[in-house]
């Protein structure tokens, strides 16, 4: 993780060595004699002491719903609101956005919409529409019979509010749900508000191949790298402009968030964004491990440690871990692991593979790790890993060809550089935070 003391130690050192500090320390007050202004010296001492003790970044991040609360919900006054949310839609005190909007003065909450995994985030299957027990409002599923809001669902709504915590990865479907909802809002002349939330993986590292333009889908809404380093509010602006959606878009921006922050730096409560993402460690490893499942490898679904272990019945765990450790992948090491999933791929079958030990999240490039694992499986167990099927999430045909040809993972990463550079220039226009 990031060293939490570095910034304020540097600032303290600058303060202590500044001309202004030396001038203050030398100042004397004359009143019948020369003596130090004790009160001034004490003030300086306390200031320096506190600067060392309290991190500059200690202020808790305020998400969009926190800022909206502070505004007295004024932007939504007089609106008939449809809310797209789930269990991640909470304020800094753990109160749900559903309850807050249901009781907000001047706001009429008329319908709820749920993304994949349902309104409570517990389902790992298609989701049916239902009724919310606490408010009595209809809950329309956007991961059931339809993935887009229908005309009937939008009847009587003049504003859509989107408050969902993303995972910072292109193939996580909450991004597409937002894009589809924006398109529906534009078609029905409905205002669209994004209550912004942090990219939990930080906002400054871009990784992975670009999605081919002919491979847009529910797991790939827009041509982006796998890890795009953008908040949902920033992506909403990009989608609206680049896809020419024409949505009446409003972003309720966060406060006290910067691009170098991991989720753990924000002071916000952790909420599982989906049933199998249960920790920040799993979320950091997720981009590089999730791509393996389509190729025929369990990524720990149906175990106590999803996205921290991976394996298959045809793997020798000791052999694989030794090979991967020999590759010296920055930020991780591997230990042999045996597990039997109780659901998902290889349910009820003994799998061997590896546990991924995260040693340095700043050093890790999760997509390099994913390429290294895929390459290792191809070399050690020829014909077992089905790299071609990984196109669904990788979304880049040339990367698949290189994997199938046995190209070195580091060389594969270099082929992404030009596309990432082009994306960065597009992305830069829509960033809201520095």
Which helices and strands, and how do they pair?
Layout: H1 6-17, H2 19-26, E1 28-30, E2 34-36, H3 38-53, H4 64-70, E3 80-85, H5 97-102, E4 108-114, E5 130-131, E6 138-141, H6 151-154, E7 159-163, H7 174-187, E8 191-195, H8 232-242, E9 248-252, H9 280-293, E10 309-312, H10 317-326, E11 332-339, E12 351-358, H11 366-380, H12 391-394, H13 397-404, H14 409-414, H15 417-428
Helix pairs in contact: 7-8, 9-11
Structure explained in plain terms:
This protein has 434 residues and is α/β, with parallel strands linked by helices. The chain has 3 domains: 6-58, no CATH class; 64-272, Rossmann fold (3-Layer(aba) Sandwich); 280-395, Alpha-Beta Complex (Aspartate Aminotransferase, domain 1). The chain is 34% helix and 14% strand. It contains 15 helices and 12 strands. It has helices at 6-17, 19-26, 38-53, 64-70, 97-102, 151-154, 174-187, 232-242, 280-293, 317-326, 366-380, 391-394, 397-404, 409-414, 417-428; strands at residues 28-30, 34-36, 80-85, 108-114, 130-131, 138-141, 159-163, 191-195, 248-252, 309-312, 332-339, 351-358. A 7-stranded mixed β-sheet has the order 5-6-4-3-7-8-9. Strands 10-12-11 form a 3-stranded antiparallel β-sheet. Strand 5 (130-131) and strand 6 (138-141) form a beta hairpin. The longest helix has 16 residues, at 38-53. Residues 1-57 have low confidence and may be disordered.
């Amino acid at each position: 993780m990031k060293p939490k003391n570095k910034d304020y130690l540097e600032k303290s050192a600058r303060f202590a060595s500044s001309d202004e500090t030396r001038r203050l320390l030398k100042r004397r007050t004359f009143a019948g004699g020369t003596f130090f202004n004790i009160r001034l010296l004490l003030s300086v001492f306390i200031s320096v002491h506190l600067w060392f003790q309290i991190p500059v970044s200690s202020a808790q991040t305020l998400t969009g719903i926190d800022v909206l609360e502070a505004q007295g919900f004024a932007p939504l006054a007089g609106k008939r609101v449809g809310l797209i949310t789930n269990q991640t839609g909470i304020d800094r005190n753990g109160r749900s956005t559903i309850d807050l909007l249901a009781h907000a003065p001047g706001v009429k909450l008329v319908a709820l919409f749920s993304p994949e995994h349902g309104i409570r985030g517990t389902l790992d299957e298609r989701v049916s529409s239902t009724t919310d027990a606490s408010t009595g409002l209809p809950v329309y599923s956007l991961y059931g019979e339809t993935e887009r809001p229908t005309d009937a669902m939008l009847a009587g709504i003049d504003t859509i509010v989107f408050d969902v915590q993303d995972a910072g990865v292109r193939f996580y479907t909450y991004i597409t749900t937002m894009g589809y909802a924006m398109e529906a809002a534009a078609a029905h002349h409905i205002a669209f508000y994004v209550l912004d939330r942090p990219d939990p993986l930080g906002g400054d590292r871009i990784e992975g191949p670009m999605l081919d333009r002919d491979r847009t889908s529910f797991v790939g809404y827009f041509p982006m790298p796998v890890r795009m380093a953008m908040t949902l509010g920033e992506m909403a602006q990009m989608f609206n402009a680049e896809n020419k959606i024409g949505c009446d878009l409003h972003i309720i921006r966060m406060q006290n968030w910067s691009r170098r922050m991991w989720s753990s730096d924000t002071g916000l409560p952790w909420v599982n964004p989906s049933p199998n993402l249960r920790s920040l460690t799993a979320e950091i490893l997720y981009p590089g491990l999730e791509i393996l499942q389509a190729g025929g490898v369990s990524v720990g679904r149906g175990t106590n440690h999803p996205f921290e272990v991976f394996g298959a019945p045809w793997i020798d765990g000791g052999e694989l871990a030794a090979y991967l450790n020999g590759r010296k992948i920055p930020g991780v090491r591997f230990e042999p692991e045996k597990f039997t999933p109780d659901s998902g791929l290889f349910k009820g079958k003994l799998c061997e593979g590896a546990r991924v030990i995260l040693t340095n999240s700043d050093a890790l490039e999760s997509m390099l790790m994913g390429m290294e694992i895929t390459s290792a499986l191809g070399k050690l167990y020829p014909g077992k890993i089905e790299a071609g099927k990984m196109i669904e999430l990788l979304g880049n045909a040339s990367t698949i060809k290189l994997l199938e040809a046995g190209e070195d993972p580091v060389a594969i990463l270099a082929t992404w550089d030009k596309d990432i550079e082009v994306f960065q220039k597009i992305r830069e226009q829509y960033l809201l935070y520095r």
